DNA sequence: CAGAGGTAGACAACTAGGTTGACCATATAT
DNA sequence: ATATATGGTCAACCTAGTTGTCTACCTCTG
């Protein structure tokens, strides 16, 4: 239809994403997690209940070296543990600590509150339409932030 | 309503954004603009018909040093010119070259085609709802990718 | 009109998050 | 037993940003 507005889509996507993430990180900072960045949150979500470094790299769609850096940062922040695997001595098993799980819970709650705000602002139907639109927008896409395996 | 899906929103936003941008950049690369990155496209949009470095920094929501770096990169790629202002000799006026305007046209066309894909895939109503949702999602937000001044 | 303070831009050093390439240690298959 | 594949690490580099400092220039005020 009115395809002139379409050009704003990338900006709106970016802006909405940043607004969402910034709001959540402000809440996390207030809750005692000052150094958590967006990449850390994504990585924690990707680790889920536990995985290896290579799996993390695949889930995030980055190189294993990049995943290792992030994992080390998360370990330094006390959010995950990295313990040697019993069945394969090359592997280090990444798993959230109690503090990491608390951070994930708070993060999820904060995201939920943000989207709830959206729902009251534009209505449930619009938010639902947005979810389905975005879900169908990038079919078969694999790579960064693809969580089809782990949600 | 079903707030469990809400947690996927940041991932969907990110994924949709990356899918969109990647597709457009693939087209641009094929059209003879191989080195254009997402930041360059945003900056070109922000420059519009012309502005100074400080204005660019404000429009992008970054430091003026970062904006200057980007502007130099755009100049090296032949997409903008940086000429001294006649009325203020401190200023350098940034303005797209013919090549830069061609790039912007191709970029806009590519974005339009991508969103048209979305429309045929999920329907005009869903895409429109997405646009209005995202537009209302971050009210009064200023900073990166805020284009209220220059669209 | 002289000088104070504000502004545009450049330069340098740093950070975060990513990349590739080379490498070692360990598993696994032949 | 040996060849090959895999998990992880280290090192060097890239991009896009940051803060701090500096100079050149404009503008406002006494």
From TrEMBL, chains A, B:
SUPFAM superfamilies: Winged helix' DNA-binding domain
Residue ranges annotated for the HTH marR-type domain, each copy included: 29-127
Keyword Heme recorded: no
InterPro entries: HTH_MarR-typ, MarR/SlyA-like, Tscrpt_reg_MarR-type_CS, WH-like_DNA-bd_sf, WH_DNA-bd_sf
GO molecular function, one term: DNA-binding transcription factor activity
Keywords: DNA-binding, Transcription, Transcription regulation
PROSITE patterns found in the cross-reference section: HTH_MARR_1 (PS01117)
Gene3D superfamilies membership: Winged helix-like DNA-binding domain superfamily/Winged helix DNA-binding domain (1.10.10.10)
GO biological process: response to stress
PANTHER family: MARR-FAMILY TRANSCRIPTIONAL REGULATOR, TRANSCRIPTIONAL REGULATOR, MARR FAMILY
Name of the protein: MarR family transcriptional regulator
Organism annotation: Leekyejoonella antrihumi
Lineage of source species: Bacteria, Bacillati, Actinomycetota, Actinomycetes, Micrococcales
